Amino acid sequence: MILQSDKPKEECAIYGIYNSKEAANFTYLGLYSMQHRGQESSGIVTTDGSHLYRYANMGLVANIFTQPKIKELIGDSAIGHNRYSTTGASFLRNAQPIRVESHLGPVALAHNGNLVNSWDIRNRLERDGSIFQTTIDSEVIVHLMAKSHKTDLLEALCDSLAQVRGAYSLLVLTPRYLVAVRDPNGFRPLVMGKRSDGAIVFASETCAFDITDTEYVRDVEPGEMVVIDHTGMRSLYPFPKAKPSLCIFEYIYFARPDSYIFEESVYKVRKSLGRQLARVMPVEADVIIPVPDSANIAALGYSEESGIPYQSGLIRSHYIGRTFIEPDQKIRDFGAKIKYNVVKEVVNGKRVVIIDDSVMRGTTSRKIIKMIRNAGAKEIHFRVSAPPTVAPCYYGIDIPTHKELIASTHTIEEIQKYLRVDSLAYLTLDTMHKAVEGHKGGGFCDACFTSNYPVEFQDHAGNQKSLFTEYATEE
Predict the structure, then answer these.
(1) What does the record give as the active site (predicted)?
(2) Nearest to 227 by CA among 261, 179, 290
């Protein structure tokens, strides 16, 4: 049985390091710290200045990279990738980083994000004779580079990226260069750091820096290309400027609370979301409990603002794999029960406020609420530290389709009745944005709450969809 989560699925993590004798080891540690961003496959590519060495496999970082495998990854520069599939099925051939050979020499690429016009480009390239080795959107970038008439790798990369649209934080490794690029809208995070030995490091989140004693320097800016080689580091801005569209869901759910992304503390923003929720959606209650782990900090903010005590009323098991054997199909709510258990002493006879960061289908939330009710809760009030999720994402987060999203097809009153709670309230859109007021990075993408997509996208047949139009994804 596959455990179906009622949460949006993770995206991907990328990590890169230039000029370190421990490049493979540090990349392993960085990927390990960002395991939350993808658990399907992991890979590392290193270079010694002459060749690229690659190893990737399905599964978790700690299980894939044994010490003998890391020793085979020779060189002082590396890039790595943890994958959760938003485009392309979960097969080993789709594991990243991608490594290819072309007239530009050996090239490896690691990509976090989703290209919204990749199917149109892929169909065109295949008609022109290109043979793809994977089903992931990232591969179109290297094919476009190989097809480019530019003989310089950096020019070919710019030529390739000028033809794609959507979300991409990229790391590109050759025997000569390490290149970090972020799309002009800046959808996905990408941070840069420096070690005391002079090594330059890039990662999706700063938690990958902490584990390797790397000092955070700054974010790679939207539309920026950072190039590092033996002559030093330089920044290029080869793309037209675009309105910043930073993914606000990174703060709400995805990033680790101990990370800094988009030049701000995830912990600080998440706590502010909880405080705002308490101000606009108060309720009289005896205890606040989060749905762990992603709602813990928002619940703490709600508790501090409201004065209602915070308790760990739900205990989450951290040892569940993506697949497990269900002992009896007749056991109802088994998936929720194996993942969460209620502390009866916390909820029995109490008016309980449950804080969660998001509700997608509502199925898991309903099961959790039933468990808390059965444990003796007198009242249950459900509060969500984000607006209702009404639309899927096409920029790198695997959010269900409109049809599957409960808030897209039901009113708040209907959802409350379905969940069987005494009250239900979401954070408003305006209040959510107040939590990130004064942010240095500029605007945010909130398309999953508004259906206002900042970049036009195409279906798999290449038919362009206008902004704010529903787009049915393949499931």
Answers:
(1) 12
(2) 179
Radius of gyration of the chain (CA): 23
Tell me: pLDDT of 411 over 60.
yes
DSSP-based three-state secondary structure for 288: strand
Whether 276 and 435 have beta carbons less than 8 Å apart is answered as yes
> The pTM is what?
0.90
Per-position DSSP letters for 244-276, written without gaps between them? --EETHIIIIIS-TT-EETTEEHHHHHHHHHHH
Give the Cα separation of 11 and 184 in Å (integer): 19
Q: Which of 115, 406, 436 is nearest to 252 (CA)?
A: 436
Residues 6+ apart with CB under 8 A from 94: 41, 83, 85, 88, 134, 135, 136
Q: How far apart are CA 363 and CA 365, in angstroms?
A: 5
Is 294 marked as binding a ligand? yes
Closest to 45 measured CA to CA, from 96, 105, 103, 102: 96
The torsion angles phi and psi of 138, rounded to 5 degrees, stand at -60, -30
Q: Which residue has the tokens 């490091």?
A: 201
> Is 393 annotated to bind ligand?
yes
**Do the strands 12-18 and 77-83 form a parallel or antiparallel pair, or are they unpaired?**
antiparallel
Centre a 10 Å sphere on the Cβ of residue 321 and count the other Cβ atoms it contains.
9
439 vs 432: CA distance, rounded Å:
13
- Tens of pLDDT, residues 35-75: 999 999 999 999 999 999 999 999 999 999 999 999 999 99
448 assigned ligand-binding residue? yes
Task: Tokens for 152, please give them.
Answer: 């310089």
* Mean pLDDT on 185-200: 97
The answer to whether 153 and 173 are in contact (CB under 8 A) is no
Whole-angstrom Cα distance, residue 406 to residue 26? Answer: 42
Six-digit token pair at 49?
Answer: 């200045």
Q: Which of 28, 460, 396 is nearest to 211 (CA)?
A: 28
Whether residue 206 contacts residue 192, with contact meaning beta carbons closer than 8 Å, is answered with no
- How far is the C-alpha of 256 from the C-alpha of 293, rounded, in Å? 10
Nearest to 421 by CA among 353, 342, 327, 321: 353
* Residue 158 annotated in ligand binding: no
Task: Check the annotation: does 207 bind a ligand.
Answer: no
Q: Please, are residues 234 and 214 in contact by the beta-carbon 8 Å criterion?
A: no
E strands, 304-428, in order: 314-316, 340-342, 351-356, 379-384, 423-426
For residue 37, what are its two tokens?
Answer: 């961003």
Contacts of 136 (CB under 8 A, 6+ apart): 85, 87, 88, 94, 96, 98, 111
Phi, psi angles (nearest 5°) of residue 264? -150, 150
Q: 3-class SS at 75? A: coil
| Structure tokens given for 392 | 């899927």
